[in-house]
Amino acid sequence: MAARVAPPTLGTVMKSIRSRNGWTLKEMSAKSGIPVSTLSKVEHDRLTLSYDKLQQLSQRLSIRMADLFAEEESDSAPRVTGRRSVGTIEQAVRVTTDNYDYHYLCTDLRQKRMIPIITRIRAHSAREFGELVRHQGEEFIYVLEGEIEIHTEFYDPVALKTGQGIYLDSSMGHAYVVAEGFDEALVLGVCSSADEGLMDSLMSLHG
Amino acid sequence: MAARVAPPTLGTVMKSIRSRNGWTLKEMSAKSGIPVSTLSKVEHDRLTLSYDKLQQLSQRLSIRMADLFAEEESDSAPRVTGRRSVGTIEQAVRVTTDNYDYHYLCTDLRQKRMIPIITRIRAHSAREFGELVRHQGEEFIYVLEGEIEIHTEFYDPVALKTGQGIYLDSSMGHAYVVAEGFDEALVLGVCSSADEGLMDSLMSLHG
DNA sequence: ACATAATGATCCTGATTAGAAAATTGTCAA
DNA sequence: TTGACAATTTTCTAATCAGGATCATTATGT
User: Which residues make beta-bridge pairs with A186?
Assistant: First the structure.
């Protein structure tokens, strides 16, 4: 009956952590202080780890304990299994603010963990932009057209050309403005929505 | 005097859990399926437990993993507030499979809620692609170059031109292939990483 | 051909697990 | 107080496994 997904082993989890970070066994070994041979054996489920090694791993790699045990979230997971939604800018939900033109994609799909938004940027300077924006979660921005400058609370401004992206904690104040020499810029953004009600907060925040 | 926060051992934690519930070793043994003698030794720090036993304990006693490792709770929120990572395809971590060339962006940033990946698609048909891919979480795909066809488990194939996107539950079998008339296609994908164990499944599935 | 990465095969020391036996503790009646 | 007596806990013993080192092998990329 229930779709019992393969019970994730420690090896599976470890391997995914490693490849997600693009580490080789050697690198992971150096970071964690656990020999390559042991890591290899763990990833192949020929070995598991005991308390002290798990703790060591958690600390040295900055991994939460709960992440090493892929315990199923149980609740907090709606677990619908077959949703799909095509999104085009033409049929997007459009929201206009002083600095941005938002085009929310796939709005017919509710309860998404991520919110894809195509945004046209108009502001040309931090001054023109005004107050930095901040909200819950994280966001990834990818430049589709033009060139932009990212202003944040804790870093110097950084420029992004077409084809480049940036990932940041949305709780850090941030502002995207068009770079010099460009009239406008178009970016694709994806916001994590883990904490709910953000579609609304986003809209009201910038609204 | 220094802030000596007693380094709680597994034994300490276990003992406190047991006495808090007023269990005897025998009762705890019955509930957990771990012999009395072992529990005794653990409580006296003459022994620790390994992965499987810890998991067993966590499940049978309904204890959260984080509670067994007395790691400072800080309310499940590591909440770093000012992370930022610029990602370009040149400095991306590259992973090649039969059907895709993955370019993982921003891999220097760990513990992300989302994983941005630029992917070059090579397969030209579902047949050529092989088994549909499925993994935990959700994903959003945006076509940067070329045109693609999305094959899924529960829907008819759908075509996506440059500039269009699709959002889907990754647990539903899916495959992206290059549309007729195109040699290759480039897409930007973002995977929710809430549950993890996905990069690996992606890689091993195609690997 | 060369370097890097991943895996496998040994081998070895020490730690873990579990079952049975010993020691401890507590309770109650004479 | 003392002697059963049972419940609880600790120690003992043996088999298994974790954890590390080293060498050989196979890909993969330069």
Answer: A120, A145
Q: B13: which 2 tokens?
A: 């934690």
- Is the CB of residue B43 inside 7 Å of nucleic acid strand D? yes
CA atom of B34 to C1′ atom of D20, Å: 28
The answer to whether some atom of strand C lies closer than 7 Å to the beta carbon of B21 is no
Residue B133 DSSP label = B
Q: Give the pLDDT confidence score for residue B194 in this predicted structure.
A: 42
Strands A158-160 and A148-152: antiparallel
pLDDT at A112 over 90: no
Q: Could you tell me where the beta strands, DSSP code E, fall in B109-147? A: 114-121, 138-145
**Rounded distance, CA B96 to CA B205, Å?**
12
In order along chain B (207 residues), what is the average pLDDT of each group of 10 residues?
Answer: 61 86 87 91 91 89 81 46 85 82 83 87 90 84 96 91 93 91 94 51 37
pTM of the model: 0.59
Query: Tell me, in Å, how far CA of A25 is from C1' of C7?
Result: 11
Please give the distance of CA A133 from its chain centroid, rounded to a whole number.
Answer: 17
CB of A24 under 7 A from strand D?
Answer: no
CA dihedral of A15, A17, A23, A25, whole degrees rounded to 10 = -40
Q: What is the mean pLDDT of residues A138-149?
A: 95
Would you list the DSSP string of B26-92? HHHHHHHT--HHHHHHHHTTS---BHHHHHHHHHHTT--HHHHTT---GGG-------EEEE-STTS
Structure tokens at A67: 């992440």
Side-chain half-sphere exposure of A88, counting CA atoms within 13 A: 6
